[in-house]
Amino acid sequence: MSFRLPLLAVATVFALSACSMFHHHKEEAPQPPVAAAAPVHQALMKTLVGDVRYDLPQAVPADAVLIVTLADVSRQDVAARTIAEERIQPVGASPVDFMLSYDPAELRDGVDFAIGVRLQQGDKLLAINDTRTSVLGRSGENGPVSITLKAVP
């Protein structure tokens, strides 16, 4: 009888601790990662790089801005849908490098995309690309691209 009491006590303690561990584990729900969502989306972004060249008759004003856009230009009957845009200011000497970050989910199959560039001072247009620079999509290249601006008279 002297062995039964300690054996019963040990078995009871073991059983209670096992129930406690199971009960504690059951209540603890795994937490979804919150901070991981932003870097994962950011990692899915892609970039298109290139440079803009210009030869203007006058110096580029200090307050001028170079606006580079990536746009869906596949439909002639509606305004082009902007996918990405970079504004560069101050504008340095030619050539000026650009980098457009875009979400590939914004690109649809069978669509034409083009780079548009404007050099402007306030509302006044100083120079623009006058030839289409197709990129990505069905008829374009993935970069790097080089775009030449023409002065606006």
List the helices and strands and how they pair.
Blueprint lengths: L3 H24 L9 H7 L2 E8 L11 E8 L8 E8 L7 E7 L10 E9 L2 E5 L4 E3 L9 E4 L1 E2 L2
Parallel strand pairs: 1-8
Antiparallel strand pairs: 1-4, 2-3, 2-5, 5-6, 5-7, 6-9
End-to-end CA span: 111 Å
Number of strands: 9
Helix content bin: 10-25%
What does the overall shape look like?
Answer: globular
The count of helical stretches stands at 2
Q: In sequence order, what are the helices and strands, one letter per element?
A: HHEEEEEEEEE
**What's the alpha carbon Rg, rounded to whole Å?**
31 Å
Task: Supply the helix-strand structural class.
Answer: alpha+beta
Low-confidence stretches: 1-5, 7-26, 32-41
* Biggest beta-sheet profile: 6 strands, antiparallel
Name the average pLDDT.
74
What proportion strand? 35-45%
Descriptors:
single chain, alpha+beta, 153 residues, six-stranded antiparallel beta sheet, globular
Provide a concise account of the structure shown:
With 153 residues, this protein is an alpha+beta fold. 20% of the residues lie in helices and 35% in strands. The radius of gyration is 31 Å and the shape is globular.
